[in-house]
């Protein structure tokens, strides 16, 4: 039974190689899509309400784009720091 347990652990570790990439893709996609879609919907609604077509829409989408860029840059920096930390830990482990 111990052999089967090791086999299932091995399969789990082999299947998990793509999960961090998928999580990263979802985070980045969310930072792109959510603010821009929200900005477009809110801008369109406000333009209809106040009759300022298309100025509030364009302003809201532009503001949403800026939010997306700041969010992406923040997440990219965090991921880069994680990678750098992982590389340094691996170097330390190799030296031991």
One letter per element, helices H and strands E, the order comes to HHH
* Whole-number count of domains: 1
What class would the helix/strand composition place it in? Answer: mainly alpha
Which strand-content bin applies to the residues? Answer: under 5%
Count of DSSP strands: 0
Mean pLDDT, all residues:
87
Specify the overall morphology: elongated
Alpha-carbon distance between the termini? 34 Å
Q: Quaternary status of these chains?
A: single chain
Helix content range: over 70%
> Major sheet, described briefly?
none
Rounded radius of gyration (Å): 22 Å
Q: Tally the helices: what do you get? A: 3
**Uncertain residue segments:** none
Please give a quick description of this structure.
The chain is mainly α and 96 residues long. The chain has helices at residues 2-15, 19-50, 55-95. It has one domain (19-95).
């Amino acid at each position: 039974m111990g052999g089967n347990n090791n086999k299932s652990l091995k399969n789990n570790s082999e299947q998990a190689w793509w999960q961090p990439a998928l999580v990263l893709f979802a985070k980045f996609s969310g930072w792109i899509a959510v603010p821009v879609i929200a900005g477009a919907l809110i801008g369109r609604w406000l333009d209809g309400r106040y009759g300022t077509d298309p100025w509030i829409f364009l302003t809201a989408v532009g503001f949403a784009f800026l939010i997306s860029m700041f969010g992406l840059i923040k997440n990219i920096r965090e991921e880069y720091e994680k990678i750098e930390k992982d590389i340094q830990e691996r170097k330390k482990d190799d030296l031991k």
